Amino acid sequence: MRKLNQITFIIVVFIATTFNIVAQNNPKTNLWKIEGDNIKTSYLFGTIHMIPKKDFIVKDKVQKAFESSDKVVLEIDMDDPNYKVDFMKLSMLNEGESLKTYMSDDEFKILDTYLKEKTGVGVNNFNTFKPMMLMSVLTMTAIGGGPLESYEMSIINMAKSANKEVSGLENITDQINAFDEDPYEEQIDTLVEMVDNGNSEELYNQLLQYYLAEDVDGMYDFMDDYMNDDIEGMKRFLDDRNNKWIPKMEAYSKDNAVFYAVGGAHLGGDQGVISLLKKAGYTLTPILD
Q1: Per-residue confidence at 225, pLDDT binned at 50, 70, 90?
Q2: InterPro entries attached here (predicted)?
Q3: pTM of the predicted structure, to 2 decimals
Q4: Where are the domains of the chain?
């Protein structure tokens, strides 16, 4: 369970948490106004990267914040024409490598059987990819059946319709490298645990309820309950990234009113984006309705 809970939720929302927790008491909202002397008024919106279509909604307050902004900034500029090519390239193993070589025969059988049952294709279809690609597929099955929506893709489409430029706080290389620091054999162990344990759907649904309630602190505390066993991993996936984002947000908002959209659990906690922006001297106002 140690690696299972950590990695499962990292891939679902690409977030983690920190061991050094300071009590937070944020109002229940996923949308915040950012103000300061040296920036244009901007907005911070917390997303959940994949969500069942039946639960997906862009509220009026989010639409208004988007419309009042000049520019859109996501974690990664997924509208970049090179994004898909770079993602596929960075997700693949080195030439001559095979995913199957990183797992035992028993592990291959467990994963192959599960994948064929859930998706109709087996491990061999992913044999040239890194384990994170398999993890992504397995995690998608945890969200359940039915159509899915992406806040990021929806926001990109809104930006295109409104002729707003889209940029990113980091690039796909940064995110892939974070996964590559864990040995592939350990990642395979996590995949097998994920299948054997079978509670990923329940955990995702709990996280989803916090998101739908716009409970930033609830999301943060929930993540801590399941990801508090790898301090360095937590720092790598959350704290370091958040801290790198702040100067980039300052630069983006210097000349533009920006609509920022990042994973919701990046917002809470002492090293969360809300707290870090306040420490940097900016005023964060919750937009409740």
Answers
A1: low
A2: TraB/PrgY/GumN_fam, YbaP-like
A3: 0.86
A4: 2-14+28-286
